[in-house]
Amino acid sequence: MAGQKEERKDLISIIVPVYNVGNYLDRSMRSILNQTYQNLEIILVDDGSTDSSPAKCDEYAARDSRIKVIHKPNGGLSDARNAGLELAAGDFIGYVDSDDWIEPDMYERMYQACAAHGAQLAVCRYFQEYSAKGSGQNTVENGHSPCSGAVVPLDREALLRNYISGQDGYVIYNSVWSKLFSRELVQGMRFPKGRNSEDIMYTTRAFCRARRAVYLDQCFYHYVLDRDGSIMNEARGKRMFRDEIPFWREHIACIREMVSQQMADLAAYHFQRRLLFYYIDARTAKNKETASRLVLEVNKDRAEMDRVYDSAIVSKGDRIRRRLFLASPSVYAAAVSLYDRIVIPLRR
After folding, report:
1. Domain span at residue 276?
2. What is the pLDDT of residues 220-247, one digit of tens each?
3. What average pLDDT score do residues 142-157 get?
4. Which of 42, 47, 102, 336 could staple 19 via S-S, CB 3.0–4.6 A?
């Protein structure tokens, strides 16, 4: 054990934005302080909280010298993370949202995987937590298949292809809290202030810069989906058009500039598929305004998407679905509904 401790020389900075989470902060902090990897710098960024959170942050700092506290006016999640980045001195950077919590060996396992494979970042899976009032915590493993516990090194191309395509066997999303980044990889990178879905571009740029990554097929992070007042509970349509869709377009442009046109085409293909899924969700929710705006979004880059959809990377089924949508969105929606009600049950 002594030999293992001597090998752990790298400092990990964990940035924790805090905003009115007095009822959740203790659970989150216990999970961080009890990490098996102890060489940590824990940066609590009080983002103008008006509850008990500021006092709690100061109490934690008084008890543990690894904890640093920043008190600042409210500027949102991105601004709080950026303030933490300005102070961070670690060789690696991790993020934990203050209403979530992590497994005891999360950072030890991710750091060891990076060290063993010469990787600049590690990616893990996560649990989804549903915390209905009075019913306790309900944990659901996130992903397409049970965790295998495998540790898989990935070069940049494999990392990006799995990230863009969402292939079974690799659960790689844009969330920064499911990752450990080497400092050199994210040097100079910041989150866009005043925006939601901010993780999309931070993760995309980091992946485009990376030479080598490592994927851990195990859930280490507990992500709370439905806390009252959380960003995920804001109006879906507003966030989608103001932040999410523009970031996915920027994601494509970034990949084109930093990697290749071929990889950007793959990203564009999956962005178009995403828009079609969003359209069906809007129709199902009977949100006509959102559905109409999504029709405009699909048509916005029509010439470019025609080129991408004529290429070999697009499946025949997706090519047909898009053509049907462009001919008549309402007929497309009816066809999808029919397929879901009849074809899928028959296949099962």
Report:
1. 242-347
2. 999 998 655 444 334 677 889 999 999 9
3. 87
4. 47
For residue 267 the two structure tokens come to 């990203």
Please check whether residues 217 and 263 belong to one and the same domain: no
Residue positions counted in the chain: 348
252: left (phi over 0), alpha (psi -120 to 50) or beta: alpha
Conformation bin of residue 229: beta by default, left when phi > 0, alpha when psi is -120 to 50:
left
Sequence-distant (6+) residues with CB within 8 A of 295 are 279, 329
> Measuring CA to CA, which residue among 221, 215, 229 is closest to residue 129?
221
159/211 Cα distance (integer angstroms): 10
What is the number of structural domains in the chain? 2
pLDDT for residue 6: 46
Torsion of CA 85, 90, 96, 97, to 10 degrees: -20
β-strands 12-18, 40-47 pairing: parallel
> What is the number of other CB atoms lying within 10 angstroms of the CB of residue 300?
12
- In a domain, residue 32? The reply is yes
Tell me, yes or no, whether 54 lies in a domain. yes
Instruction: Please check whether residue 114 is in contact with residue 36, taking contact to mean a CB–CB distance below 8 angstroms.
Output: no
Rg (C-alpha) for the chain, rounded Å, is 21
pLDDT in tens, 263-292: 999 999 999 999 999 999 999 989 999 999
Among candidate residues 232, 256, 286, the one where a domain is terminated: 232
Cα(258)–Cα(152) distance, integer angstroms: 24
CB 246 within 8 A of CB 296: no
CB 322 within 8 A of CB 309: yes
Least confident of 138-142, 155-159, 300-304, 326-330: 138-142
For residue 320, is pLDDT > 90? Answer: yes
CA–centroid distance for 324 within its chain = 31
Residue 237 domain-assigned? no
Whether 51 and 137 share a structural domain: yes
% of the chain beyond a pLDDT of 90: 79
Task: Give this prediction's pTM.
Answer: 0.90
